[in-house]
Amino acid sequence: MITARQLCRASPQLKQISSVRRYATESSSPGGMNNLVKYGGGTFGALFVGFGIVRYFASPPPEERQRKMHEIREAMKEGSDSIKPAQKTFKGGEQGWVDLKLENVEEINHNTKKFRFALPDKDDVSGLEIASALLTKYKGPEMEKPVIRPYTPTSDEDAKGHIDFVIKRYPDGPMSEHLHSMEPPQRLEFKGPIPKYPWSPNKHDHVCLIAGGTGITP
Fold it and tell me: Strand locations in the chain, DSSP E?
């Protein structure tokens, strides 16, 4: 049981705690609020004015904006004009023979070489699709008739500026022997394309490739 004497001894401590709590929960004086409004409002006002000045000088006049937009539109137009679809070298039909320059010869083994012929323009594509071939034509000085042989390119159909062939040389083979005797920048006549098999992506689940004959083809 708490006696009266113990309560009297504790009363000064309770008064001290009460005064501390009252001080902590007192509202701000009117002067403090006025100072906050006075100095805080001035600061926000200065920031607002400064933002307006920066935006005024950073934003160009209407005439300047129109000029810049015109320059951007002209640049975009020039860029779109410069992007043109690749031209196909071989179009078929009544096109006739196309004369191509031998650009490079790479020796694969003792009787097989890779030949790269340059297309008329560095941005041109062959125009062939997968599993299509080209005719080659050569007439030697002592030949009565020209030799014509088909070959399938090994380069990708989207390759630009060149077309590749991997060709095996056969004894007494007039076209393969002529090709293996060629050196850059000699030229050879081509015609096509000759479509062989209509291929489309994912047409078959499995594909078997057999390499044989005078041309090693995909």
Answer: 98-109, 112-118, 132-138, 147-151, 162-168, 187-195
**Cβ-based neighbours of 101, under 8 Å, separated by 6 or more:** 117, 118, 184, 185, 186, 187
Helix, strand and coil percent figures for the chain, each rounded to 5: 35, 25, 40
Cα pseudo-dihedral 199, 204, 210, 211, rounded to 10: 40
pLDDT by residue (tens digit) across 149-207?
999 999 998 999 999 999 999 998 999 999 999 999 999 999 999 988 887 888 889 98
- Reference 90, options 122, 133, 131, 130; nearest CA is 133
190 three-state secondary structure: strand
* Nearest of 123, 147, 125, 128 to residue 137 by alpha carbon: 147
pLDDT in tens, 37-76: 445 555 555 555 555 554 555 566 777 777 778 778 777 7
Contact 153, 216 (CB under 8 A): no
Tokens 């007439």 belong to which residue?
139
CB 152 within 8 A of CB 217: yes
Residue 149's nearest CA partner among 188, 117, 116 is 188
Neighbour count for residue 66 (Cβ, 10 Å):
11
- Contact in structure between 167 and 151 (CB atoms under 8 Å): yes
- Strands 147-151, 162-168: parallel, antiparallel or unpaired by DSSP? unpaired
